[in-house]
Design a protein that fits this description.
The protein is mostly helical. The chain has 2 domains: about 40 residues; about 60 residues, lambda repressor-like DNA-binding domains (434 Repressor (Amino-terminal Domain), Orthogonal Bundle). The longest helix is centred in the first third of the chain and has 20 residues. The protein is elongated.
Length: about 120
């Protein structure tokens, strides 16, 4: 097992290739340990060099709805009626504090994500 820090994109690509080769290694083997360490190094490199910006609140809600296979009507009691859900998801109305509290519980989203500012459509 020869492991080194990932400092460049070339190192990153080599680490990804090696991880792919040993990904299914038997747990407890040297290759499994190497895969664990490579995974940590790759994760750290990606956090520094490939940051992904969080979606705006409405996109986050839509993504979670899709993950949970929910329809707009499923959020009517949380947001305040079918029309209100439509207005919020179509960016005609901003989320209120009460809506954010309810969505946090119902969709298991962080309040920090939902309080971010976003633009309304006209």
């Amino acid at each position: 097992m020869k492991i080194k820090l990932i400092k460049t994109d070339i190192d990153y690509q080599k680490a990804l290739k090696r991880l792919e080769e040993i990904f299914d290694a038997q747990i407890g083997s040297l290759e499994s340990d190497e895969a664990d360490i490579l995974g940590l190094l790759i994760d750290e490199y990606e956090r520094k060099h490939y940051q992904i910006e969080a979606p705006d609140p409405i996109e986050a809600i839509k993504i979670r709805m899709e993950e949970m296979q929910l329809k707009q009507v499923d959020l009517a009691d949380v947001i305040g009626g079918r029309n209100r859900v439509s207005e919020v998801l179509n960016r005609k109305r901003k989320l209120t504090v009460e809506m954010i509290r309810n969505l946090t519980k119902r969709l298991n989203l962080s309040p920090e994500l939902l309080i971010r500012d976003y633009k309304l459509t006209r």
